[in-house]
């Protein structure tokens, strides 16, 4: 008891109360103290003389603070890349970083890439599409979107990688160059930016849009149940609180309507690929009905080729088939609508993994995922191009 | 519903096989042994008086050792209630993880330094190495709930350990309170459960209490206290 009282008195007298972590409580509870360097020897001597047990948790706090400072500076440096070569594809990024990336890519490749704003999200964020074009008018096109479900972070991350891959490979890779000479590629990386922002600020597991639902406390519509294909049928929910809420009406969400308008006014898209995670699947229409789509054989065979190419890189195994057979019945889905508009090569991907990490895929899997998926995309784009006048 | 041979790549066989995965975790899982479904090779199903019966040949992957092997299973989805599973995976013998489990058990058995953690993995898929066994344990324990909740219209995975807190060791069992997020694929819902679990190398994982949390439509669950 005496030791504790003396100990407390000494410290209060010499250093002031702030040096303690917490108040002294009782004899058996340890106390943490921070000791300025000049007093170190005095303190040690005192503790030993009074037979008070101690052990050193941190040798030198300054070293720790210096290291932390270094980390923060490093983070600050890497947070603002000056070129798309500096951009860290092996990490997840914020909305602002991805918007900035898109602008940089356009600025660095003005003759190949332009930015098309197709609309605004509910919270008025720009819905931006990167157009990769070697010029000309009225060319047929290929569409790729990522991030329509905001929690599927590997998809937006892969989208940025695909964008860079296209500009890197144009003029170097025969197959891609040939595709781009014939067709334009449209890539929407953040298809649901409001949802994406929400996954970063509030709820990592948010899937839907962020538009409120009148008369309900529940927010958001599932943008992959909001398309006018089998809308209102089984395979979507009529409850605003549900993750698969179809929305008040088809195309009610601006994130969906803007793509509908784009597709309709473009009029010459030949392939439409919508990218999700997770499950490792490549899917073709339909989701809303068991009736096979009329191009089922061709789409099935192309899917098989695509996933074989995908697997060639790391052995990642994908299943494939129509949506309704392979995963579940889903109505109001994107590629059911695009297929019904006459865009034959309509596919949905479900990227890595199969449930171990699920939506929260470690960042070190972004690039491998993007790389293997690219092979499948190339198979689809090549076949599309070969089969387009 | 299809009867007879099923396409092993389509969802009916896959959903049934996932139930087998959860069953195996409840039987064999530990902080160093966590099973996942690989491929389904063969599947068939038929209606029986008690419900719907499936026969499956599948590959199961043990995630930590990265060993895979074949299993055959028979499973019954009754009209209501927990699926009944019988499975044999001869290669899943509880031997190779003994040392790691024992070391982990000894390390945490003494209640002086009770562990806790939250957001495992974090938003970026990252976790501290020391948290990994607790992630595995959360996944295995979640399989008890996922097994019980499964039917022919569900497919469950654990999405994240929201938080866990170690409680005082009792009767030689490590004890934990877990809050987990389960992802149900068909509804796409994230379902919050709290559970009280115990584990020891001798007794395996046991789930003493489970508590479904109300759906919140709000922000991430609060961090654990520590």
Automatic annotation (TrEMBL), chain A:
It is found in: Secreted. SUPFAM superfamilies: Protease propeptides/inhibitors, Zn-dependent exopeptidases. Its main location: secreted. Its cofactor is Zn(2+). The active site is at 350 (proton donor/acceptor). It catalyses: Release of a C-terminal amino acid, but little or no action with -Asp, -Glu, -Arg, -Lys or -Pro. Residues 1-16 form the signal peptide. Keywords: Carboxypeptidase, Disulfide bond, Hydrolase, Metal-binding, Metalloprotease, Protease, Secreted, Signal, Zinc, Zymogen. One of its GO terms (cellular component) is extracellular space. One of its GO terms (molecular function) is metallocarboxypeptidase activity. It comes from the Eukaryota. One of its GO terms (biological process) is proteolysis. Residues 91-384 form the Peptidase M14 domain. Its EC number is 3.4.17.1. Residues 229-249 are annotated as: Disordered. Belongs to the peptidase M14 family. This is Carboxypeptidase A1. It comes from Esox lucius (Northern pike).
